[in-house]
Automatic annotation (TrEMBL):
PANTHER family: MEMBRANE BOUND PREDICTED REDOX MODULATOR, THYLAKOID MEMBRANE PROTEIN TERC, CHLOROPLASTIC. This is Tellurite resistance protein TerC. The chain crosses the membrane at residues 6-26, 38-59, 79-96, 103-125, 131-148, 194-214, 226-248, 255-278, 298-319. It comes from Brachybacterium sacelli. It is found in: Membrane.
């Protein structure tokens, strides 16, 4: 089916309109979206993608519709994997939780623009270069092997160092400050105009988006050569990614085998591309430049394999010992925070039930095999959180036994402030109270320095 220029124009206008709507009504004013907000808007964006797919089925036929859904599911799965990297980058730059939406929307917008360019290049390559399918297939097979090798190296002590090296490299090349100035991209420090971490993290995410495109674009061209389907499936898979990030934030860590599932999918599509290249072969050194009689993978089979692999991957991740270990760490963290921050205004029965759940999660942590202990360590200050919860519980039980009540906190708490809330860094990670106070003091000093520099600059201009 040939897509008219009018349909192309209307589609692009609709996608740009969705991005503009997202910015104006959701991102322009910094805030942390609730789970309900993220769930509603994630459902809306997925619904839009599904309705569009139904329209493709109705107007373009069964083959075109199946190609769209196969491409959409594949690109959506790859985009979820990309969220892991976004988490690492925003954690490395300590992006305040309320500003993460803006960073994500920038990344999504840049991804759509950059991948549109690569789609155009890929379409031209397929049309004019007969061996393009061999190249795309090789890229996907290499990526699949690399993903498995990288996953096998998980826990490598050099991995975190590589991430921090990238951050240091960006800061070394560009004059920048370590302190955020709201959501501004530039600020004044020591009388000089410098980049803020907000701009640096956007540059970092833009760079990773380009790398992601090298995998995702060949993957979807392996499922369909219809440029319109490639573009729309890619664009709709990226729209709503910001809301999905906040919706499955706590679930991301539990998808411990997602990389293996994606590597299988990429390898499958890579083989499909190579088979297609052999079927339409024109390279003189392969079978004398004549096509080979090899089987080709149908779109229906591709869609079945992709969905089946993803379902199995998610189930194995959630039910495996490693997945359950990660779930235990996440649950212990959540229950400890909830218990520590609950006051006497809450129901005592609810507090007791919460404490019992926390104890069960803690027993699970203590019984984890040695190979899973790194998960406990990587969950920042979960042991300190549990220790504070135990001290608070002992004091509360003592008061209850005497028929008294008190909102006071016991001495020696590590991560609990005097008002009973949890100390956190700008990214929402639990830190010790002393670390929070030191970071706040540094931030206030930097803020005073910027204000003084701006005042001096203003006086100099007037003079």
């Amino acid at each position: 089916m040939t897509v008219s220029p009018l349909i192309w124009l209307l589609t692009i206008i609709a996608i740009v309109g969705l991005l503009a709507f997202d910015y104006i009504f959701h991102v322009r004013k910094a805030h942390i979206p609730t789970i309900g907000e993220a769930a509603v808007w994630s459902a809306i964006y997925v619904g839009i993608a599904l309705v569009f797919g139904v329209g493709v089925f109705a107007l373009g036929g069964t083959t075109m519709g199946a190609e769209y859904f196969a491409g959409y599911v594949t690109e959506k799965a790859l985009s979820v994997d990309n969220l892991f990297v976004f988490l690492v980058i925003m954690g490395a730059f300590a992006v305040p939780r309320k500003d993460q939406q803006k960073v994500l929307l920038f990344g999504i917008t840049f991804a759509i623009i950059s991948r549109s360019g690569m789609i155009a290049i890929g379409a031209v390559a397929i049309d004019r270069l007969s061996f393009a399918f061999y190249i795309f297939g090789a890229i996907l097979l290499y990526t699949a092997v690399k993903m498995i090798r990288d996953e096998a190296k998980e826990g490598d002590p050099d991995a975190e160092e590589k991430d921090s090296f990238f951050v240091r490299l960006v800061k070394k090349v560009l004059p920048a400050t370590d302190e955020y100035d709201g959501d501004k991209l530039f600020t004044i420090e020591n009388g000089k105009r410098v980049l803020t971490p907000m701009l640096l993290v956007m540059i970092a995410i833009a760079g990773t988006d380009l790398l992601f495109a090298l995998d995702s674009i060949p993957a979807i061209f392996g499922l369909t050569q219809n440029t319109y389907i490639v573009f729309t499936a890619t664009a709709f898979s990226l729209l709503g990614l910001r809301q999905l990030y906040f919706l499955i934030d706590g679930l991301l860590d539990r998808l411990v085998y997602l990389s293996y599932g994606l590597s299988i999918i990429l390898a499958f599509i890579g083989v499909k591309l190579v088979l297609h290249a052999l079927h339409t072969n024109e390279l003189f050194f392969v079978n004398g430049g004549e096509p080979l009689d090899v089987p080709e993978v149908t779109t229906g089979l591709s869609l079945t394999v992709i969905i089946s692999v993803l379902v199995v991957t998610v189930l194995v991740s959630l039910l495996s010992p490693k997945g359950r270990a990660q779930a235990a760490v996440n649950n212990a963290h959540r229950e400890a925070v909830a218990y520590v921050e609950m006051t006497y205004a809450g129901f005592e029965a609810r507090r007791d039930a919460m404490y019992e759940r926390m104890l069960e999660d803690e027993k699970t942590l203590q019984g984890l095999p040695a190979r899973f202990q790194d998960i406990v360590v990587s969950e920042q200050n979960v042991r300190e959180l549990l220790a504070d919860a135990h001290r608070i519980h002992e004091m509360r039980v003592g008061f209850n036994d005497r028929g008294e009540r008190s909102d006071e906190q016991p001495e020696g708490l590590i991560v609990t402030r005097t008002d009973g809330t949890i100390a956190t860094d700008p990214n929402g990670n639990v830190v010790t109270v002393s670390e929070e106070e030191a970071a706040l003091a540094r931030s206030q000093a930097k803020r005073r320095e910027r204000e003084e520099a701006r005042a001096a600059h203003s006086v100099a201009r007037k003079g």
